[in-house]
Design brief:
CATH topology of the largest domain: Cytochrome Bc1 Complex, Chain D, domain 2
Bound molecules: heme C
Largest sheet: none
CATH class of the largest domain: Mainly Alpha
Strand content: under 5%
Structural class: mainly alpha
CATH architecture of the largest domain: Orthogonal Bundle
Number of helices: 6
Length: 146
Amino acid sequence: MSPRVATVDTNARIGKFVRRFAFSIPLALFILAAPHHARAQGAVSPPADGQTAFNNSCRTCHSMDAGDNRLGPSLHGIVGKKAGTTEGYQFSSALKGAGFEWTKDKLAAFIESPEAVVPGNNMKPYAGLTDKATRDAIVAFLGDGN
Ligand code: HEC
């Protein structure tokens, strides 16, 4: 084997390596950029999906399962139910005495500002939801045969 052949051979191998490496740069950049892209999109538009919005804003304290009272009462079948009457839950006197039935409009107003709908209620700490699209998505989810 002459040294000259070996050099050609080595050059060819280096060339192949460089080509392969160059090829992988855009791929690596894509992989690095992808999660940032996804996160940026999530920050721009809030979840329109009611289940996700419910999980983000309500699920810490509420379950949708019948009889599953946590820090807050179960919200199973809440649309059309008389306020403050869920069995097995100790409501504040404010909610017990509210005297109305939960409609979708009442629910939307309540999750925007609980104090404005039932003064003296005990749904705390809860800051209220300023985004209308998110409120509507949650109310639709609450009414979806749950
Ligand atoms: C920090 C805990 C907490 C969070 C978060 C929370 N709640 Fe509540 N919620 C409560 C508590 C506690 C009560 C009972 C208040 C009372 O007795 O005055 C309540 C009561 C309610 C009621 C009245 C139920 C009935 O049977 O009359 C509704 C409706 C309700 N919450 C909906 C929601 C929705 C929808 C969200 C999310 C957008 C939410 N809550 C977020 C704790 C919470």
